[in-house]
Amino acid sequence: MNQLKRVSLSQLLIYAVLTIGAVVVVYPFFFMVNNSFKTGREIMHSPAALPTEITLRGYTGVFEELNVLLLFKNSLILAVSITLLNALLSALAGYAFAKIPFPGRGRIFGFMLLTMMIPGVLFLIPTYVFIYNLGWVGRYEALIVPSAVSVFNIFLVRQFMLGIPDELVEAARIDGAGEITIFTRIILPLARPALATVAILTFMGSWNDFFGPLLYLNRPDRWTLQLGLLQFRGTVPGENSEQIWALTTLITLPIVVVYFFIQEQFVKAFANVSLSK
Amino acid sequence: MTSLQATRAMPQGTPLWLRIRRNAWGYVFVSPWVVLYMIFGLYPLILSFYLTFFTYSFVTPENRAFVGVGNWVGGATDPLFWKALYNIVLNQAVFITLKNGIGLLTAALLFRITWGARFFRTIYFLPVITSTVVLMTIGDNLASPGGPIQRWMINAGILSGPSFWKSDNTLPMIVIALINTWKWFGISTVILLAGMYGIDPRLYEAAAVDGARGWDMFRRITLPLLRPQLFFLLVVDVINGLQMFTEVFSIGFNVYGGINNQALTPVLYLYAQAFDRSNVGYASTLGLLLAFIIAGLTAIQFRFIRSEAD
Protein backbone atom coordinates (compact mmCIF):
# COMPACT_ATOMS: atom_id res chain seq x y z
CA MET A 1 0.00 0.00 0.00
CA ASN A 2 2.78 2.35 0.96
CA GLN A 3 4.49 1.64 -2.29
CA LEU A 4 1.40 2.65 -4.26
CA LYS A 5 1.31 6.00 -2.53
CA ARG A 6 4.92 6.65 -3.38
CA VAL A 7 4.26 6.38 -7.10
CA SER A 8 4.64 10.04 -7.84
CA LEU A 9 3.49 12.12 -10.76
CA SER A 10 6.86 11.82 -12.48
CA GLN A 11 6.67 8.03 -12.18
CA LEU A 12 3.23 8.06 -13.80
CA LEU A 13 4.60 10.19 -16.62
CA ILE A 14 7.48 7.74 -17.15
CA TYR A 15 5.07 4.81 -17.31
CA ALA A 16 2.91 6.71 -19.80
CA VAL A 17 5.89 7.35 -22.11
CA LEU A 18 7.11 3.76 -21.82
CA THR A 19 3.61 2.44 -22.57
CA ILE A 20 3.27 4.61 -25.66
CA GLY A 21 6.67 3.28 -26.75
CA ALA A 22 5.53 -0.30 -26.23
CA VAL A 23 2.36 0.28 -28.27
CA VAL A 24 4.37 1.81 -31.13
CA VAL A 25 6.78 -1.13 -31.08
CA VAL A 26 4.09 -3.81 -30.99
CA TYR A 27 1.52 -2.27 -33.34
CA PRO A 28 3.32 -3.25 -36.58
CA PHE A 29 3.33 -6.89 -35.44
CA PHE A 30 -0.37 -6.64 -34.71
CA PHE A 31 -0.86 -5.08 -38.15
CA MET A 32 0.88 -8.06 -39.76
CA VAL A 33 -1.04 -10.78 -37.91
CA ASN A 34 -4.33 -8.92 -38.30
CA ASN A 35 -3.94 -8.59 -42.07
CA SER A 36 -2.95 -12.24 -42.42
CA PHE A 37 -6.59 -13.15 -41.61
CA LYS A 38 -8.18 -10.75 -44.12
CA THR A 39 -9.08 -10.94 -47.78
CA GLY A 40 -6.90 -9.10 -50.30
CA ARG A 41 -9.69 -6.63 -50.88
CA GLU A 42 -9.97 -5.71 -47.23
CA ILE A 43 -6.18 -5.45 -46.86
CA MET A 44 -6.17 -2.99 -49.75
CA HIS A 45 -9.11 -0.82 -48.68
CA SER A 46 -8.99 -0.89 -44.89
CA PRO A 47 -5.51 -2.02 -43.89
CA ALA A 48 -5.81 -0.95 -40.26
CA ALA A 49 -9.32 -2.30 -39.54
CA LEU A 50 -10.10 -5.63 -37.93
CA PRO A 51 -11.26 -8.33 -40.37
CA THR A 52 -15.02 -8.26 -40.95
CA GLU A 53 -14.79 -11.96 -41.57
CA ILE A 54 -11.80 -14.11 -40.64
CA THR A 55 -10.33 -15.95 -43.62
CA LEU A 56 -7.41 -18.37 -43.91
CA ARG A 57 -7.04 -17.81 -47.66
CA GLY A 58 -3.60 -16.27 -47.21
CA TYR A 59 -2.34 -19.33 -45.35
CA THR A 60 -3.85 -21.88 -47.73
CA GLY A 61 -2.52 -19.81 -50.64
CA VAL A 62 1.02 -19.87 -49.25
CA PHE A 63 0.91 -23.64 -48.81
CA GLU A 64 -0.51 -24.14 -52.31
CA GLU A 65 2.00 -21.99 -54.16
CA LEU A 66 5.05 -22.67 -52.08
CA ASN A 67 6.49 -25.78 -50.51
CA VAL A 68 6.58 -24.13 -47.09
CA LEU A 69 7.67 -27.27 -45.27
CA LEU A 70 10.64 -27.64 -47.61
CA LEU A 71 11.69 -24.01 -47.06
CA PHE A 72 11.23 -24.50 -43.33
CA LYS A 73 13.40 -27.60 -43.51
CA ASN A 74 16.09 -25.74 -45.49
CA SER A 75 16.13 -22.87 -42.99
CA LEU A 76 16.37 -25.36 -40.14
CA ILE A 77 19.17 -27.42 -41.74
CA LEU A 78 21.27 -24.28 -42.20
CA ALA A 79 20.57 -22.73 -38.80
CA VAL A 80 21.03 -25.95 -36.80
CA SER A 81 24.23 -27.08 -38.49
CA ILE A 82 25.83 -23.62 -38.39
CA THR A 83 24.87 -23.25 -34.72
CA LEU A 84 26.18 -26.67 -33.67
CA LEU A 85 29.44 -26.21 -35.56
CA ASN A 86 29.98 -22.78 -34.06
CA ALA A 87 29.23 -23.92 -30.53
CA LEU A 88 31.64 -26.86 -30.80
CA LEU A 89 34.49 -25.19 -32.68
CA SER A 90 34.43 -21.95 -30.71
CA ALA A 91 34.37 -23.92 -27.44
CA LEU A 92 37.46 -25.90 -28.53
CA ALA A 93 39.38 -22.85 -29.74
CA GLY A 94 38.20 -20.72 -26.82
CA TYR A 95 39.47 -23.36 -24.39
CA ALA A 96 42.86 -23.60 -26.11
CA PHE A 97 43.28 -19.81 -26.16
CA ALA A 98 42.26 -19.46 -22.52
CA LYS A 99 43.80 -22.48 -20.83
CA ILE A 100 46.49 -24.21 -22.95
CA PRO A 101 49.66 -22.09 -23.11
CA PHE A 102 51.00 -23.60 -26.36
CA PRO A 103 53.89 -21.74 -28.03
CA GLY A 104 52.68 -19.10 -30.50
CA ARG A 105 49.31 -18.77 -28.81
CA GLY A 106 49.67 -15.02 -28.27
CA ARG A 107 50.54 -14.45 -31.91
CA ILE A 108 47.71 -16.52 -33.34
CA PHE A 109 45.25 -14.83 -31.00
CA GLY A 110 46.52 -11.36 -31.93
CA PHE A 111 46.22 -12.18 -35.61
CA MET A 112 42.69 -13.42 -35.03
CA LEU A 113 41.67 -10.17 -33.38
CA LEU A 114 43.16 -8.28 -36.29
CA THR A 115 40.98 -10.16 -38.78
CA MET A 116 37.92 -8.95 -36.85
CA MET A 117 38.69 -5.41 -38.01
CA ILE A 118 38.30 -6.26 -41.71
CA PRO A 119 34.81 -5.24 -42.94
CA GLY A 120 32.88 -8.24 -44.28
CA VAL A 121 31.98 -6.51 -47.55
CA LEU A 122 35.53 -7.05 -48.75
CA PHE A 123 35.01 -10.81 -48.86
CA LEU A 124 31.69 -10.69 -50.66
CA ILE A 125 32.80 -10.87 -54.29
CA PRO A 126 36.01 -12.96 -54.00
CA THR A 127 34.27 -15.52 -51.78
CA TYR A 128 31.49 -15.80 -54.32
CA VAL A 129 34.02 -16.32 -57.13
CA PHE A 130 35.76 -19.00 -55.05
CA ILE A 131 32.55 -20.81 -54.09
CA TYR A 132 31.29 -20.57 -57.67
CA ASN A 133 34.50 -22.22 -58.89
CA LEU A 134 34.16 -24.93 -56.24
CA GLY A 135 30.74 -25.71 -57.70
CA TRP A 136 29.03 -25.05 -54.37
CA VAL A 137 26.48 -22.48 -55.58
CA GLY A 138 23.04 -23.96 -54.90
CA ARG A 139 24.35 -26.25 -52.15
CA TYR A 140 24.07 -25.97 -48.36
CA GLU A 141 27.87 -26.21 -48.03
CA ALA A 142 28.24 -22.75 -49.58
CA LEU A 143 26.69 -21.24 -46.44
CA ILE A 144 27.59 -23.82 -43.78
CA VAL A 145 31.33 -24.36 -44.30
CA PRO A 146 32.54 -20.71 -44.44
CA SER A 147 30.48 -19.84 -41.34
CA ALA A 148 31.31 -22.99 -39.34
CA VAL A 149 33.32 -20.92 -36.88
CA SER A 150 33.59 -17.18 -36.33
CA VAL A 151 36.34 -15.15 -34.69
CA PHE A 152 33.74 -13.27 -32.77
CA ASN A 153 32.35 -16.43 -31.15
CA ILE A 154 35.82 -17.73 -30.27
CA PHE A 155 36.61 -14.39 -28.64
CA LEU A 156 33.35 -14.45 -26.67
CA VAL A 157 33.98 -17.98 -25.36
CA ARG A 158 37.65 -17.32 -24.62
CA GLN A 159 36.81 -14.23 -22.52
CA PHE A 160 34.35 -16.29 -20.53
CA MET A 161 36.78 -19.19 -20.02
CA LEU A 162 39.47 -16.86 -18.67
CA GLY A 163 37.18 -16.59 -15.66
CA ILE A 164 37.34 -20.33 -14.96
CA PRO A 165 40.06 -20.86 -12.30
CA ASP A 166 43.31 -22.38 -13.61
CA GLU A 167 43.47 -24.56 -10.48
CA LEU A 168 40.45 -26.57 -11.65
CA VAL A 169 42.19 -27.44 -14.90
CA GLU A 170 45.58 -28.03 -13.26
CA ALA A 171 44.14 -30.31 -10.61
CA ALA A 172 42.57 -32.45 -13.31
CA ARG A 173 45.85 -32.55 -15.25
CA ILE A 174 47.75 -33.70 -12.15
CA ASP A 175 45.16 -36.44 -11.69
CA GLY A 176 46.15 -37.62 -15.15
CA ALA A 177 43.12 -36.42 -17.12
CA GLY A 178 43.74 -35.83 -20.84
CA GLU A 179 42.81 -32.57 -22.57
CA ILE A 180 39.69 -34.13 -24.14
CA THR A 181 38.45 -35.32 -20.75
CA ILE A 182 39.15 -31.93 -19.19
CA PHE A 183 37.31 -30.26 -22.05
CA THR A 184 34.20 -32.44 -21.95
CA ARG A 185 33.96 -32.99 -18.17
CA ILE A 186 35.08 -29.65 -16.72
CA ILE A 187 35.15 -26.91 -19.33
CA LEU A 188 31.97 -27.63 -21.31
CA PRO A 189 29.61 -27.72 -18.30
CA LEU A 190 31.13 -24.53 -16.86
CA ALA A 191 31.06 -22.69 -20.18
CA ARG A 192 27.35 -23.24 -20.76
CA PRO A 193 26.32 -19.57 -20.37
CA ALA A 194 28.89 -18.48 -23.00
CA LEU A 195 27.85 -21.28 -25.34
CA ALA A 196 24.20 -20.32 -24.91
CA THR A 197 25.11 -16.80 -26.04
CA VAL A 198 26.96 -18.17 -29.06
CA ALA A 199 24.10 -20.51 -29.92
CA ILE A 200 21.38 -17.86 -29.65
CA LEU A 201 23.22 -15.23 -31.69
CA THR A 202 24.31 -17.72 -34.35
CA PHE A 203 20.92 -19.38 -34.72
CA MET A 204 19.15 -16.06 -34.95
CA GLY A 205 21.63 -14.68 -37.45
CA SER A 206 21.31 -17.71 -39.68
CA TRP A 207 17.51 -18.01 -39.40
CA ASN A 208 17.05 -14.33 -40.28
CA ASP A 209 19.78 -14.24 -42.95
CA PHE A 210 18.58 -13.10 -46.34
CA PHE A 211 21.66 -12.02 -48.23
CA GLY A 212 23.56 -15.32 -47.90
CA PRO A 213 20.75 -17.53 -49.24
CA LEU A 214 20.00 -14.94 -51.94
CA LEU A 215 23.58 -15.19 -53.18
CA TYR A 216 24.18 -18.91 -52.89
CA LEU A 217 20.86 -20.78 -52.78
CA ASN A 218 19.29 -19.36 -55.91
CA ARG A 219 17.41 -22.56 -56.64
CA PRO A 220 13.78 -23.12 -55.53
CA ASP A 221 14.44 -26.48 -53.84
CA ARG A 222 17.16 -24.90 -51.69
CA TRP A 223 15.26 -21.70 -50.79
CA THR A 224 14.93 -20.65 -47.18
CA LEU A 225 11.81 -19.15 -45.61
CA GLN A 226 13.22 -15.63 -45.95
CA LEU A 227 13.71 -16.11 -49.70
CA GLY A 228 10.20 -17.53 -50.05
CA LEU A 229 8.81 -14.03 -49.57
CA LEU A 230 10.37 -12.98 -52.88
CA GLN A 231 8.04 -15.44 -54.59
CA PHE A 232 5.07 -13.25 -53.68
CA ARG A 233 6.68 -9.95 -54.54
CA GLY A 234 4.22 -8.42 -56.97
CA THR A 235 4.65 -5.73 -59.58
CA VAL A 236 1.37 -4.04 -58.67
CA PRO A 237 0.80 -2.75 -55.11
CA GLY A 238 -1.58 -5.06 -53.25
CA GLU A 239 -0.75 -8.09 -55.38
CA ASN A 240 -0.49 -11.34 -53.37
CA SER A 241 -1.03 -9.37 -50.16
CA GLU A 242 -2.94 -12.25 -48.51
CA GLN A 243 -0.03 -14.64 -48.97
CA ILE A 244 2.59 -12.05 -47.99
CA TRP A 245 0.98 -11.40 -44.59
CA ALA A 246 0.43 -15.09 -43.95
CA LEU A 247 4.04 -15.94 -44.80
CA THR A 248 5.59 -13.09 -42.78
CA THR A 249 3.52 -14.26 -39.80
CA LEU A 250 4.68 -17.86 -40.34
CA ILE A 251 8.35 -16.78 -40.55
CA THR A 252 8.15 -14.66 -37.42
CA LEU A 253 6.16 -17.04 -35.22
CA PRO A 254 8.83 -19.69 -34.40
CA ILE A 255 11.50 -17.24 -33.29
CA VAL A 256 9.06 -15.14 -31.25
CA VAL A 257 7.78 -18.25 -29.45
CA VAL A 258 11.35 -19.27 -28.61
CA TYR A 259 12.08 -15.70 -27.54
CA PHE A 260 9.25 -15.54 -25.04
CA PHE A 261 10.38 -18.77 -23.41
CA ILE A 262 14.04 -17.79 -23.02
CA GLN A 263 13.91 -14.00 -23.36
CA GLU A 264 16.28 -13.49 -20.43
CA GLN A 265 19.00 -15.44 -22.29
CA PHE A 266 18.32 -13.54 -25.52
CA VAL A 267 18.78 -10.18 -23.83
CA LYS A 268 21.86 -11.41 -21.95
CA ALA A 269 23.36 -12.69 -25.19
CA PHE A 270 23.28 -9.18 -26.63
CA ALA A 271 24.48 -7.56 -23.41
CA ASN A 272 27.41 -10.03 -23.30
CA VAL A 273 28.47 -8.93 -26.74
CA SER A 274 29.05 -5.37 -25.64
CA LEU A 275 30.77 -6.24 -22.36
CA SER A 276 33.32 -8.51 -24.02
CA LYS A 277 34.78 -5.65 -26.05
CA MET B 1 54.24 -12.87 -22.25
CA THR B 2 53.67 -16.35 -23.57
CA SER B 3 56.50 -17.83 -21.50
CA LEU B 4 55.21 -16.09 -18.38
CA GLN B 5 51.78 -17.63 -18.81
CA ALA B 6 53.36 -20.97 -19.57
CA THR B 7 55.24 -21.11 -16.28
CA ARG B 8 52.22 -19.98 -14.33
CA ALA B 9 49.78 -22.43 -15.83
CA MET B 10 52.16 -25.37 -15.65
CA PRO B 11 53.72 -26.52 -12.36
CA GLN B 12 57.52 -26.78 -12.47
CA GLY B 13 57.79 -30.53 -12.20
CA THR B 14 55.65 -31.42 -15.23
CA PRO B 15 57.49 -33.86 -17.50
CA LEU B 16 58.40 -32.56 -20.93
CA TRP B 17 56.44 -35.19 -22.85
CA LEU B 18 53.26 -34.26 -20.96
CA ARG B 19 53.75 -30.62 -21.85
CA ILE B 20 54.32 -31.46 -25.49
CA ARG B 21 51.20 -33.62 -25.57
CA ARG B 22 49.14 -30.86 -23.99
CA ASN B 23 50.46 -28.22 -26.39
CA ALA B 24 49.70 -30.50 -29.32
CA TRP B 25 46.06 -30.53 -28.23
CA GLY B 26 46.19 -26.74 -28.18
CA TYR B 27 47.12 -26.71 -31.86
CA VAL B 28 44.46 -29.32 -32.67
CA PHE B 29 41.76 -27.27 -30.93
CA VAL B 30 42.52 -24.01 -32.78
CA SER B 31 43.20 -25.70 -36.13
CA PRO B 32 39.60 -25.67 -37.43
CA TRP B 33 39.56 -21.90 -37.33
CA VAL B 34 43.09 -21.56 -38.75
CA VAL B 35 42.33 -23.88 -41.69
CA LEU B 36 38.93 -22.35 -42.42
CA TYR B 37 40.32 -18.84 -42.23
CA MET B 38 43.12 -19.62 -44.66
CA ILE B 39 40.62 -21.03 -47.16
CA PHE B 40 37.67 -18.65 -46.72
CA GLY B 41 39.49 -15.58 -45.37
CA LEU B 42 43.04 -15.18 -46.58
CA TYR B 43 42.52 -16.72 -50.00
CA PRO B 44 39.51 -14.50 -50.88
CA LEU B 45 41.41 -11.52 -49.46
CA ILE B 46 44.27 -12.08 -51.90
CA LEU B 47 41.84 -12.95 -54.69
CA SER B 48 39.94 -9.69 -54.16
CA PHE B 49 43.09 -7.61 -54.77
CA TYR B 50 43.98 -9.77 -57.76
CA LEU B 51 40.51 -9.42 -59.30
CA THR B 52 40.67 -5.62 -59.19
CA PHE B 53 43.26 -5.62 -61.99
CA PHE B 54 41.08 -7.54 -64.45
CA THR B 55 37.78 -7.49 -66.21
CA TYR B 56 36.23 -10.79 -65.24
CA SER B 57 32.81 -12.33 -65.70
CA PHE B 58 31.18 -15.52 -64.43
CA VAL B 59 29.70 -16.20 -67.83
CA THR B 60 32.95 -16.03 -69.80
CA PRO B 61 35.82 -16.42 -67.32
CA GLU B 62 38.23 -17.20 -70.18
CA ASN B 63 37.86 -13.66 -71.54
CA ARG B 64 39.71 -12.22 -68.57
CA ALA B 65 41.65 -9.09 -69.52
CA PHE B 66 44.26 -7.14 -67.57
CA VAL B 67 43.18 -3.53 -67.10
CA GLY B 68 45.82 -2.27 -64.65
CA VAL B 69 44.45 0.32 -62.26
CA GLY B 70 41.49 0.97 -64.56
CA ASN B 71 38.97 -0.43 -62.09
CA TRP B 72 40.41 1.65 -59.25
CA VAL B 73 40.28 4.89 -61.24
CA GLY B 74 36.81 3.97 -62.50
CA GLY B 75 35.53 3.23 -59.00
CA ALA B 76 36.96 6.36 -57.40
CA THR B 77 35.37 8.54 -60.10
CA ASP B 78 32.08 6.63 -60.50
CA PRO B 79 29.24 9.07 -59.78
CA LEU B 80 26.92 6.19 -58.89
CA PHE B 81 29.34 4.92 -56.24
CA TRP B 82 29.46 8.39 -54.71
CA LYS B 83 25.70 8.71 -54.94
CA ALA B 84 25.45 5.39 -53.08
CA LEU B 85 27.88 6.64 -50.42
CA TYR B 86 25.91 9.86 -50.02
CA ASN B 87 22.68 7.86 -49.61
CA ILE B 88 24.09 5.55 -46.97
CA VAL B 89 25.71 8.37 -44.99
CA LEU B 90 22.40 10.27 -44.95
CA ASN B 91 20.60 7.09 -43.89
CA GLN B 92 23.10 6.30 -41.13
CA ALA B 93 23.20 9.87 -39.78
CA VAL B 94 19.44 9.71 -39.21
CA PHE B 95 19.48 6.10 -38.04
CA ILE B 96 22.39 6.29 -35.59
CA THR B 97 21.10 9.50 -33.99
CA LEU B 98 17.54 8.23 -33.55
CA LYS B 99 18.39 4.66 -32.57
CA ASN B 100 20.87 5.63 -29.87
CA GLY B 101 18.85 8.68 -28.79
CA ILE B 102 15.71 6.62 -28.26
CA GLY B 103 17.78 3.82 -26.71
CA LEU B 104 19.28 6.29 -24.23
CA LEU B 105 15.89 7.80 -23.39
CA THR B 106 14.20 4.43 -22.83
CA ALA B 107 17.16 3.16 -20.79
CA ALA B 108 17.08 6.29 -18.59
CA LEU B 109 13.33 5.85 -18.05
CA LEU B 110 13.59 2.10 -17.37
CA PHE B 111 16.38 2.84 -14.88
CA ARG B 112 14.05 5.05 -12.86
CA ILE B 113 10.99 2.81 -12.55
CA THR B 114 10.54 0.40 -9.67
CA TRP B 115 8.62 -2.41 -11.37
CA GLY B 116 7.90 -3.55 -14.92
CA ALA B 117 11.33 -2.71 -16.36
CA ARG B 118 11.74 -6.31 -17.51
CA PHE B 119 8.35 -6.29 -19.21
CA PHE B 120 9.09 -3.16 -21.25
CA ARG B 121 12.58 -4.38 -22.10
CA THR B 122 11.11 -7.64 -23.43
CA ILE B 123 8.71 -5.71 -25.65
CA TYR B 124 11.34 -3.25 -26.94
CA PHE B 125 13.58 -6.15 -27.86
CA LEU B 126 10.98 -7.92 -29.99
CA PRO B 127 11.94 -6.27 -33.33
CA VAL B 128 15.63 -7.03 -32.69
CA ILE B 129 15.00 -10.76 -32.99
CA THR B 130 12.68 -10.49 -36.00
CA SER B 131 14.01 -10.81 -39.54
CA THR B 132 14.87 -7.71 -41.55
CA VAL B 133 12.86 -8.91 -44.55
CA VAL B 134 9.70 -9.23 -42.45
CA LEU B 135 10.16 -5.87 -40.72
CA MET B 136 10.83 -4.08 -44.01
CA THR B 137 7.70 -5.65 -45.53
CA ILE B 138 5.62 -4.42 -42.60
CA GLY B 139 7.25 -0.98 -42.60
CA ASP B 140 6.75 -0.64 -46.35
CA ASN B 141 3.02 -1.36 -46.03
CA LEU B 142 2.52 0.85 -42.98
CA ALA B 143 4.15 3.79 -44.78
CA SER B 144 2.68 3.20 -48.25
CA PRO B 145 0.29 5.70 -49.87
CA GLY B 146 -3.08 4.48 -48.59
CA GLY B 147 -1.40 2.78 -45.62
CA PRO B 148 -2.39 3.58 -42.03
CA ILE B 149 0.40 6.07 -41.29
CA GLN B 150 -0.28 8.26 -44.31
CA ARG B 151 -4.05 8.05 -43.72
CA TRP B 152 -3.55 9.22 -40.17
CA MET B 153 -1.19 12.02 -41.26
CA ILE B 154 -3.69 13.25 -43.84
CA ASN B 155 -6.51 13.20 -41.28
CA ALA B 156 -4.35 15.11 -38.82
CA GLY B 157 -3.51 17.68 -41.48
CA ILE B 158 0.23 16.90 -41.53
CA LEU B 159 0.12 15.69 -45.13
CA SER B 160 -1.99 17.34 -47.79
CA GLY B 161 -2.18 14.25 -50.02
CA PRO B 162 -0.70 10.80 -50.41
CA SER B 163 3.10 10.77 -50.63
CA PHE B 164 4.78 8.48 -53.12
CA TRP B 165 7.96 8.56 -51.09
CA LYS B 166 9.67 5.70 -52.88
CA SER B 167 10.23 7.80 -55.99
CA ASP B 168 11.41 10.82 -54.00
CA ASN B 169 15.12 11.60 -53.99
CA THR B 170 15.82 11.58 -50.24
CA LEU B 171 12.73 10.09 -48.55
CA PRO B 172 13.50 6.39 -49.17
CA MET B 173 16.70 6.53 -47.15
CA ILE B 174 14.91 8.43 -44.37
CA VAL B 175 11.99 5.97 -44.22
CA ILE B 176 14.39 3.03 -44.15
CA ALA B 177 16.29 4.73 -41.30
CA LEU B 178 13.02 5.07 -39.37
CA ILE B 179 12.10 1.41 -39.85
CA ASN B 180 15.62 0.39 -38.83
CA THR B 181 15.35 2.57 -35.73
CA TRP B 182 12.25 0.61 -34.76
CA LYS B 183 14.17 -2.63 -35.35
CA TRP B 184 17.40 -1.85 -33.50
CA PHE B 185 16.84 0.70 -30.70
CA GLY B 186 16.17 -2.17 -28.25
CA ILE B 187 19.83 -3.16 -28.42
CA SER B 188 20.88 0.33 -27.35
CA THR B 189 18.31 0.21 -24.55
CA VAL B 190 19.63 -3.09 -23.20
CA ILE B 191 23.32 -2.17 -23.45
CA LEU B 192 22.92 1.31 -22.00
CA LEU B 193 20.65 0.06 -19.21
CA ALA B 194 23.27 -2.53 -18.25
CA GLY B 195 25.81 0.30 -18.19
CA MET B 196 23.56 2.39 -15.91
CA TYR B 197 23.12 -0.48 -13.46
CA GLY B 198 26.93 -0.69 -13.34
CA ILE B 199 27.35 2.89 -12.11
CA ASP B 200 28.13 3.15 -8.39
CA PRO B 201 24.95 4.51 -6.69
CA ARG B 202 27.12 6.37 -4.16
CA LEU B 203 28.05 8.80 -6.93
CA TYR B 204 24.38 9.82 -7.22
CA GLU B 205 24.03 10.02 -3.44
CA ALA B 206 27.05 12.30 -3.16
CA ALA B 207 25.74 14.48 -5.98
CA ALA B 208 22.33 14.66 -4.30
CA VAL B 209 24.01 15.89 -1.10
CA ASP B 210 25.65 18.62 -3.19
CA GLY B 211 22.18 19.61 -4.39
CA ALA B 212 22.30 18.16 -7.92
CA ARG B 213 18.96 17.30 -9.50
CA GLY B 214 17.81 14.76 -12.10
CA TRP B 215 19.00 16.38 -15.31
CA ASP B 216 22.33 17.54 -13.84
CA MET B 217 23.03 14.05 -12.56
CA PHE B 218 22.25 12.56 -15.96
CA ARG B 219 24.50 15.02 -17.77
CA ARG B 220 27.39 15.05 -15.29
CA ILE B 221 27.43 11.46 -14.03
CA THR B 222 25.40 9.05 -16.19
CA LEU B 223 26.39 10.27 -19.63
CA PRO B 224 30.18 10.48 -19.06
CA LEU B 225 30.23 7.05 -17.40
CA LEU B 226 28.27 5.52 -20.29
CA ARG B 227 30.99 6.56 -22.73
CA PRO B 228 32.37 3.00 -23.26
CA GLN B 229 28.91 1.67 -24.14
CA LEU B 230 28.08 4.60 -26.41
CA PHE B 231 31.42 4.25 -28.15
CA PHE B 232 30.86 0.53 -28.68
CA LEU B 233 27.40 1.15 -30.15
CA LEU B 234 28.70 3.88 -32.46
CA VAL B 235 31.58 1.79 -33.83
CA VAL B 236 29.37 -1.24 -34.47
CA ASP B 237 26.62 0.91 -36.03
CA VAL B 238 29.01 2.54 -38.49
CA ILE B 239 30.60 -0.78 -39.51
CA ASN B 240 27.25 -2.54 -40.01
CA GLY B 241 25.31 0.38 -41.38
CA LEU B 242 27.60 1.21 -44.26
CA GLN B 243 27.24 -2.37 -45.52
CA MET B 244 23.44 -2.23 -45.86
CA PHE B 245 21.83 -4.37 -48.55
CA THR B 246 18.86 -6.44 -47.39
CA GLU B 247 16.82 -3.48 -46.16
CA VAL B 248 16.72 -1.70 -49.51
CA PHE B 249 16.28 -4.85 -51.56
CA SER B 250 13.48 -6.30 -49.43
CA ILE B 251 11.50 -3.06 -49.29
CA GLY B 252 11.06 -3.46 -53.03
CA PHE B 253 13.83 -1.54 -54.80
CA ASN B 254 15.78 -3.17 -57.60
CA VAL B 255 19.56 -3.62 -57.33
CA TYR B 256 20.08 -0.11 -58.73
CA GLY B 257 18.05 1.42 -55.89
CA GLY B 258 15.20 2.63 -58.10
CA ILE B 259 14.98 4.60 -61.34
CA ASN B 260 16.94 7.59 -60.02
CA ASN B 261 19.18 5.45 -57.78
CA GLN B 262 17.41 7.19 -54.91
CA ALA B 263 17.90 4.15 -52.64
CA LEU B 264 21.20 2.88 -54.01
CA THR B 265 23.70 1.76 -51.36
CA PRO B 266 27.35 0.80 -51.98
CA VAL B 267 26.74 -2.92 -51.39
CA LEU B 268 23.65 -2.85 -53.61
CA TYR B 269 25.74 -1.23 -56.31
CA LEU B 270 28.55 -3.74 -56.14
CA TYR B 271 25.95 -6.53 -56.21
CA ALA B 272 24.49 -4.97 -59.36
CA GLN B 273 27.92 -4.70 -60.96
CA ALA B 274 28.84 -8.31 -60.16
CA PHE B 275 25.58 -10.12 -60.81
CA ASP B 276 23.64 -7.91 -63.19
CA ARG B 277 26.44 -6.52 -65.35
CA SER B 278 28.94 -9.31 -64.73
CA ASN B 279 31.72 -6.79 -63.93
CA VAL B 280 33.28 -8.95 -61.24
CA GLY B 281 36.66 -7.20 -61.20
CA TYR B 282 35.00 -3.82 -60.88
CA ALA B 283 32.65 -5.04 -58.13
CA SER B 284 35.65 -6.38 -56.20
CA THR B 285 37.30 -2.95 -56.46
CA LEU B 286 34.18 -1.27 -55.09
CA GLY B 287 34.19 -3.74 -52.18
CA LEU B 288 37.78 -2.83 -51.36
CA LEU B 289 37.09 0.91 -51.65
CA LEU B 290 34.17 0.59 -49.24
CA ALA B 291 36.25 -1.53 -46.85
CA PHE B 292 38.95 1.14 -46.81
CA ILE B 293 36.37 3.86 -46.11
CA ILE B 294 34.89 1.84 -43.23
CA ALA B 295 38.33 1.07 -41.79
CA GLY B 296 39.24 4.78 -42.04
CA LEU B 297 36.07 5.86 -40.24
CA THR B 298 36.63 3.27 -37.50
CA ALA B 299 40.21 4.48 -37.05
CA ILE B 300 39.00 8.09 -36.75
CA GLN B 301 36.47 7.03 -34.11
CA PHE B 302 39.16 5.25 -32.10
CA ARG B 303 41.47 8.25 -32.30
CA PHE B 304 38.63 10.57 -31.30
CA ILE B 305 37.71 8.51 -28.24
CA ARG B 306 41.37 8.29 -27.22
CA SER B 307 41.90 12.05 -27.35
CA GLU B 308 38.60 12.51 -25.48
CA ALA B 309 39.78 10.20 -22.72
CA ASP B 310 43.08 12.06 -22.27
Give a structural overview.
The complex is a heterodimer of chains A (277) and B (310). Chain A has 277 residues and is mainly alpha-helical. Chain A has 2 domains: 85 residues, no CATH class; 158 residues, MetI-like fold (Orthogonal Bundle), CATH 1.10.3720.10. Chain A contains 16 helices and no strands. The longest helix of chain A is centred in the N-terminal third of the chain and has 32 residues. Chain B is mainly α and 310 residues long. Chain B has 2 domains: 61 residues, no CATH class; 235 residues, MetI-like (MetI-like fold, Orthogonal Bundle), CATH 1.10.3720.10. Chain B is built from 14 helices and 2 strands, in the order ααββαααααααααααα. A two-stranded antiparallel sheet of chain B has the order 1-2. In chain B, helix 5 packs across helix 8. The longest helix of chain B has 36 residues. The N terminus of chain B is likely disordered.
CATH architecture of the largest domain in chain A: Orthogonal Bundle
Strand count of chain B: 2
Number of helices of chain B: 14
Structural class of chain B: mainly alpha
Helix content of chain A: over 70%
Overall pLDDT score of chain B: 90
Task: State the CATH superfamily name of the largest domain in chain A.
Answer: MetI-like
| Average predicted local confidence, pLDDT of chain A | 90
Task: Specify the overall morphology of chain B.
Answer: globular
Radius of gyration of chain A (Å)? 24 Å
Specify the overall morphology of chain A.
Answer: globular
Helical content band of chain B: over 70%
Q: How would you classify the helix and strand content of chain A by structural class?
A: mainly alpha
Q: How many β-strands of chain A, per DSSP?
A: 0
